[in-house]
Amino acid sequence: MTAHTPPAAPLRDPQLPFAKRIDDLLSRLTPEEKVSFLHQFAPAVERLGIAAFRTGQEALHGVAWMGPATVFPQAVGLGATWNPDLVRRIGEAVSKEVRAMRARDERVGLNVWSPTVNLLRHPLWGRNEEGYSEDPRLTSAIATAYTHGLRGDHPTYWRTAPVLKHWLAHNNETGRDVTSSSVRPRVLHEYDLRAFRGCVEAGSVAGVMPAYNLVNGRPNHVSPYLREHLRAWTDEELLVCSDAGAPSNLVDSEHYFDTHEEATAAALVAGVDSFTDHGTDSSKIVARVEGALERGLLTRADVDAAVRRQLSVRFRLGEFDPHYDPHAGTGEFDSPAHRTLAGEAAEQAIVLLRNDGVLPLAADTRIAVVGLLADECKLDWYSGTLLHRSTPLEGLYERFGAERVEFAEGVDRVLLKTSAGTFLKVPTAPEATDEVRGAEGALDPALLAGRTDLPPLTTDATGTELALVDWGEGVLTLRAPDGRYLSVAEDGFLRASADQPGGWVVQETFRLVPQADADGSTAESSDGYGHGHLLLHLGMGRPVCVAADGVRVAGPDEERPEVVEVIVVESGEDAVTRVTAGADVVVVVAGNDPHINGRETEDRTTLRLPAHQERLLAAARAANARTVLALVSAYPYAIEPGPLSAVLWTAHGGQAAGTALARVLAGDVSPAGRLPQTWYAEDADLPDLLDYDVIGARQTYLYFEGTPLFPFGHGLSYASFSYADLAVRVEDGTARVSCTVTNTGDVTADEVAQLYTRAVDPSVIRPRRELLDHRRVTLVPGASAELSFDVALSAFAFWDVAQGRWRLESGPYELLVGASSTDVRLRTTVTLAGEPSAPRPVRRRGLEAADFDEQSGVEIVDRTKVSGDAVTPAAAGTGELLYRACDFGTGAGTTGVTVTAAGSGTVELSLDGGPTLATLTVAASPGKPYDYVTVDAALSAAGVHDLRLGLRGPLRLAHVGFSG
Q: Active-site residue among 177, 192, 243, 412?
């Protein structure tokens, strides 16, 4: 007899479509197994040969959290390259490193939570470093390139499965899990959704992660937009992964639901498929889902739909077809190609903001390099551990020779004197091993503990000289002579133990809290520090004390805090002056530490450079007029560039940052980075951090009416370029724009040609100019390139709130081509045939309250917990709404008005700025924000008028209807 091999189960048959294989697998899973898959850490199902799976592998600019990996520039730096092809290659390199690292460490996941496509609407956002641009089209172009690289080119199997962060309208860390972003329909469609939509429609995205915040009063994790928009953009199954702890926030901090069963059910029904909560412990989520099923809040079909989406990603990653997976065994890690790519990215990310001719530097230039970032290669929360390291100082040593470079960091070198007359002392630790935070990798680096193997600080008669840096707002770090930062571990003792500040709660930051003298005064001393201070440890929120067993953070009710005196051995300004006077050029490297004052969980409060760094810059400028400022930062600053010979900016540039900066300063490569967001001149130019109405608040380059410090798209070159031959042809629903760019300089350089548009005579407020496309090209001296841009006419449309859809308005549109949003070299006007403006048919459709044209003192809230918008007066209790061109009919016109509202208050109606014509009083059930009533009143109106509504009191207005 011949033994026949039983046929493979359909789930294992690579010849079948994924959908049929998933159907088969779902039929084999028990209800309990399906529920267990809903947690981030899905368990193995051994009886079916299914491995455990986790969602989530951070890979924003390299593989993060899992130990050493190639570190590329921060995301905002990748945005500054304006180079999708480069970013695609970086995504490809990162995905290959993910595969290589997973081959030796199964903790490394293939579902990568990258990139971040939140728009850089407000430069004080703490996570500015994670986004690409304030412009939705540039963001979408860069993000699409990165996800293409992460995904790979195979039509069936993906190298990694990227998830976009953070859906939606998320730009504040202050109260990020309880604040609501008020997003009017035009801003929603024209701004926030646009960045996500392009990536999803490109087919390289596996899913999204909702953000912690609420939008229009409703948490993103129960947003109807997941169904109405996200999943309507593609036929692919999209996996929605919650942010960490966000499911519990629905009850615990947001109080949006009364029970976790209700919250979990609502999130699952809205479209969340994988719950990231309680770390690796899935029991709570499983219990909540089972409880929701028992209460009838969920059906088994709801669970199946979520599990299907997760399985779709796992099949695409080749998990069930290991012999057919083209990416298996193709990992590449720390290769020469990846190192070269990191250098190329760091060079392309550098933006030359100002240059009076001092740059590039001649080979024999004597350079003084100073500043707190001069000998640093900083990492951020979403960085991997460095395999290679290049600081600006090291880059300049390498490029110009150490004998031609002088260095001063500019720290204040201090002793800390106790009330007993002794000084804080860092004891020697001859047997201590060198450790780099996170080098071993961690699924959750927030849980990494501080070192306790080193002896704590003590006191003695001489003490240890410490390097003190004030990073702004009085937040200090203190560093020992061996380079290690003072840090506090769980036992509360101070040790010189950290290689850098870092961690979810930074344990390396302090504040000097002045203490009154005997006469009650707290006057500063000549060195600016004063005479007596508590040394407050910010991580624990308590001051330091001197105990018998060492220096430690005082317990809440225990030791008496120590009052210390800061003895300045050498000020940073004196150190800078000492090395700069004899130099030909001074390079001041200033910026931020990505873990301090502007990071996840913490927004900035000002655009200004920290005072410590302003003092260093002033000292350098006073000592040498030829001063170059190199800003290395995760966000823009407001500076005074006038006295400076040159200004450059780069994000923290990863492992090759220092070499790249030195090559640009030397002219080995001409800078061609461009600003991906507006640099404002002062804090007064900024709207409130929580004002998400970019149209009404005139935010970003799209609507800003002031004069920026440096405009969107700005960046200088060592070459010069001319633009000519602008031509436009409109055909087949496309505007075909072409021009010629010529390198008129004497060095090879890149130019970034930018195409903008402006509606000349719009019926509503439109952008002052709006990026349509761009091209980065490399040209040798004298060479020309003919550039062409094919722009779909839909790109000229706007979201018409009167009709609830996109509309291309007939009329003239300017097309502008140039080197930035303000440096326009060519322009022409084209007249497009679209739809003419029409008045709102309010008699027929009424008005959705959120579809206003303009507002004052109003915010949008949730009409119900499931869907819909309403409007309510903001904190002041009064608000105004304007609806333009409302058609009340002819003849007798409109004779009545009806408002649908909840809460209590009044709605006042007037036309064209005239007197109040009707006042409707709403008195719904108190304390029940979703109990709506309708209130009628007489209203006599005919013809087309602008309608104004005045809202008074804590009411929610959902709809206004008209009759007659």
A: 243
